[in-house]
């Protein structure tokens, strides 16, 4: 249609195809699995921190993530596939860790060995590394990504397990690439393990090249932090719209799709046509096929450089920007327009009810920014424009995501240019340092926007002023060692707590004493099995004959038992349950005078869900309260103790005004 100059029809087909694909992705996400929206990395990061949100790793989330990501990326939306691939791999790991899916009758008995928190967490960590290895063909980068970005607990055994996982990924990738290189995959599967091979044996740089590289890092840090700032504001608006219902979610996706199509089709008209370079190994212009020189509205033997960037896959566009010997292929105005468009389209495209990633759009935008800086430098630097594009990607990634080691290795594995290692390291360190002055990294911001109670590795300064007794809440629900069934049912129905202290009182002990902690899930198992006693006495039966370890194993991501689904007669409600055999008799406890900062370190490092607080005096009740993750959240602490907001020990976020106040105070 473009060849016959039917531009209106061409735009209609282009916009209509994008609209249908994006609406399909949005509908299956909205109505089947809302947990599949976004990149999934914040959810994986929160899960590995101890937050088990519902349905984030379910089988339906897995399928919606795969299908929806394909449709969303194909709809010309400025989103990536790396984040969804990480979430997809984590879903596979979690499903394996829970022994499969009983709901869909996909189970395997030997996999039940992993039905505990630690092994399942290790599998999800390995899965996230495998996702990066598959997305970027970067096995070592995948291991480092899992270590640096998503994992909260790391140990040496997990290192080689993650390395083994990514090694298997890259071996399978290599085998599939060989199949595709034989011509059986059409346009798909081109290239080798190195996605953007810019290997150059004669890359040299001198002292004169350092100033532009330093400037690249500083501006990359500013752009990255501003990217996070705008993304946070846009997502707040999107959340208000999405809360109004399914129709508003779909209308928002439709609006962004139409706007994106208009930008992609309209902006290339602002660029002038260029004659095809001589001596090319590929067709110019490329018509009716994938290629790097798009004719668009130009005359024969001419191409539109801006259309060549817009009407290409993200991978091909990045490859074009990274390529050496292409200094004269793009115009400054075209690269500038593409940078502005990709920067802001990446921000408004994220947050829709579709699976979407941030990694690839940031790499693409950074490559455009780096290429533009290289073009502006001209003869003042010996580096070619393609190498500036690689450094630009590194600077924007460091400024937005604040990862250093993993991004450095991923960039090197993507480009196969080890000679750039010193410059990439320098750019990443500078951009991260500059961006940290303004705000947090993008994934921390997304975790907070989603309301996930993520525990940081360090305690805030104001926590040193408080004890655990200052934040522990009430009222406390306590069960006796032998408890009446009706009381258990009442407490489970009227509270949402997941752990309850068990206290022995006379006649089972001489004085009230803490016996242990019992979980809601275990109480539901006892009520469902109906192991009741007619009198308030200790059970004389052998528990191991009535229950197996699998009865109390951690459930998967499907529907859990609830108290409403258990039917009990009036006679059974008057019976008793001996909780002693099923209680954890060695729960972690702290004295009520312990520093809140120390309690947080203990809570996070051990990976607890409940921390019992006991009194300092033996004359009081044996339990003061229970600390959960909620009690360590800054919102809860500062809400209960507002005087800390005026304290000089409050958290210092080093913004511009804070820096001025800090330095003036020191002076």
UniProtKB/TrEMBL annotation:
PROSITE patterns, A to Z: CBS (PS51371)
GO cellular component: chloride channel complex; plant-type vacuole membrane
Protein location: Membrane
Keyword Kinase: no
Pfam families for the chain: CBS, Voltage_CLC
SMART domains per UniProt: CBS
Name of the molecule in the record: Chloride channel protein
């Amino acid at each position: 249609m473009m060849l016959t100059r039917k531009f209106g029809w061409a735009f209609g087909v282009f916009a209509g195809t994008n609209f249908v694909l994006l609406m399909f992705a949005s509908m299956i996400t909205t109505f089947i699995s809302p947990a599949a929206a976004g990149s999934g990395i914040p959810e994986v990061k929160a899960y590995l921190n101890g937050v088990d949100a519902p349905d984030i790793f379910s089988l339906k989330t897995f399928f919606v993530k795969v299908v929806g990501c394909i449709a969303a990326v194909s709809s010309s939306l400025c989103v990536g596939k790396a984040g969804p691939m990480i979430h997809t791999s984590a879903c596979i790991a979690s499903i394996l860790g829970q022994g499969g899916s009983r709901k869909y009758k996909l189970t395997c008995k030997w996999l039940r060995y992993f039905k505990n928190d630690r092994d399942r967490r290790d599998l999800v960590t390995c899965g996230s590394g495998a996702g990066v290895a598959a997305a970027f063909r970067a096995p070592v980068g995948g291991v480092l990504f899992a270590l640096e970005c998503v994992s909260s607990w790391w140990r040496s055994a997990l290192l080689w397990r993650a390395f083994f996982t990514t090694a298997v990924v890259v071996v399978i990738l290599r085998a599939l690439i060989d199949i595709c290189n034989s011509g059986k995959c059409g346009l798909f599967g081109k290239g080798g393990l190195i996605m953007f091979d810019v290997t150059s044996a004669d890359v040299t740089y001198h002292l004169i090249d350092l100033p532009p590289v330093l400037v690249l890092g500083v501006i990359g840090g500013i752009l990255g932090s501003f990217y996070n700032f705008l993304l946070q504001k846009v997502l707040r608006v999107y959340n208000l719209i999405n809360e109004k219902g399914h129709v508003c979610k779909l209308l928002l996706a439709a609006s962004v799709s139409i706007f994106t199509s208009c930008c992609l089709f309209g902006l290339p008209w602002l660029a002038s046509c260029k004659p095809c370079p001589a001596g090319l190994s590929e067709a110019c212009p490329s018509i009716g096929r994938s290629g790097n020189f798009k004719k668009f509205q130009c005359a024969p033997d001419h191409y539109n450089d801006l259309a060549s960037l817009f009407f290409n896959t993200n991978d091909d566009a990045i490859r074009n920007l990274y390529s050496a010997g292409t200094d004269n292929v793009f115009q400054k105005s075209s690269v500038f327009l593409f940078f502005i468009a990709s920067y802001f389209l990446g921000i408004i495209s994220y947050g829709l009810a579709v699976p979407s990633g941030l990694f690839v759009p940031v790499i693409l935008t950074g490559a455009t920014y780096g290429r533009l800086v290289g073009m502006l430098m001209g003869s003042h630097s010996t580096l070619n424009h393609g190498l500036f594009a690689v450094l630009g990607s590194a600077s924007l990634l460091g400024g937005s995501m604040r990862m250093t080691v993993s991004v450095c290795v991923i960039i090197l594995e993507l480009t196969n240019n080890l000679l750039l290692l010193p410059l990439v390291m320098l750019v990443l360190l500078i951009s991260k340092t500059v961006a940290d002055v303004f705000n947090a990294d993008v994934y921390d911001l997304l975790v907070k926007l989603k309301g996930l109670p993520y525990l940081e590795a360090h305690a805030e300064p104001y926590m040193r002023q408080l004890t655990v007794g200052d934040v522990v809440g009430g009222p406390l629900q306590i069960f006796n060692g032998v408890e009446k069934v009706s009381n258990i049912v009442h407490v489970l129905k009227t509270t949402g707590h997941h752990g309850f202290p068990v206290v022995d009182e006379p006649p089972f002990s001489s004085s009230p004493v803490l016996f242990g902690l019992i979980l809601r899930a275990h109480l539901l198992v006892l009520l469902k099995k109906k192991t009741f006693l007619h009198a308030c006495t200790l059970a004389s039966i052998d528990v191991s004959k009535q229950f197996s370890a699998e009865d109390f194993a951690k459930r998967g991501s499907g529907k859990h038992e609830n108290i409403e689904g258990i039917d009990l007669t009036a006679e059974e409600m008057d019976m008793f349950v001996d909780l002693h055999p099923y209680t954890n008799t060695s729960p972690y406890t702290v004295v009520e005078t312990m520093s809140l900062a120390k309690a947080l370190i203990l809570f996070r490092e051990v990976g607890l869900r409940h921390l019992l607080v006991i009194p300092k005096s033996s004359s009081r009740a044996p339990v003061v309260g229970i600390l959960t993750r909620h009690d360590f959240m800054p919102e809860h602490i500062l809400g209960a103790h507002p005087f800390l907001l005026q304290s000089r020990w409050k958290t210092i976020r080093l913004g511009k005004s804070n820096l001025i106040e800090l330095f003036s105070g020191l002076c």
